[in-house]
Amino acid sequence: MSEEQEMIRVEHLNKSFGELHVLKDIDLTVKESDVVVLIGASGSGKSTLLRCLNFLEMKNSGSIIIGGEQIEKKSHDLNKIRQKVGMVFQHFNLFPHKTVIENVIEAPTQVKGVKKSEAIKEGKALLDKVGLGDKYDVYPSKLSGGQKQRVAIARALAMKPDVMLFDEPTSALDPELVNEVLTTMKELAEEGMTMVVVTHEMGFAREVADWVVYMHEGRIVEYGHPDEIFNEPKEQRTKDFLSSVL
Ligand code: ADP
Ligand code: MG
User: What is the value of pTM for the model shown?
Assistant: First the structure.
């Protein structure tokens, strides 16, 4: 690969659910350490695009290249690919009957075969990093939404992914808890994690994104640096969307 390594390259991606053509000829390249923020109205296909990148949904046509390797359902172990691409959802999906540290070590020990002692050591370091060093042995029900989401981030990081996908990670949170999660994500970005983030937090997009992608009805309508997209959008649809959310 070239000096500026491509982490994700999507070309001519199409995805339909039955008759509904949801992703229309999507082209997207994400370089290593880039933070790409996807914005767009509800139903424009943002989640479907993320889910295709993580192979939770299967494309109908086009190509998806992750880390230089073209991924095909037939010839790949999709569980392996999913380990390279971590995902954080709006709803945290923690195991309620497991403690915080047990949540974090579950996948490394069960899926990757990491030794439990090693997984615990690494898991604790990740929890320290997301500011939950005092919550290792607590059950999720005792945590705030912001804390749960930070556990979910630590849990995804425990698989040592090359890319992290975030699908509206703060949309289910009370407003006063949004910032602690955005701060954790910002720190991750500063460490050089490659990230694709769907969010309505335009402040985060302005501050942290290298690129902002505006989607409308299954197409990428506009793509640019945050300054360009927020200060001088070229497309009328982008302007209309931004004036509805800003
Ligand atoms: P966004 O995340 O931008 O709100 P989505 O990707 O969730 O958009 O959805 C895009 C379109 O695809 C919507 O019309 C939605 O109803 C439809 N859709 C999403 N997932 C499915 C599914 N599993 N089956 C059928 N339709 C779906
Ligand atoms: Mg969505």
Answer: 0.96
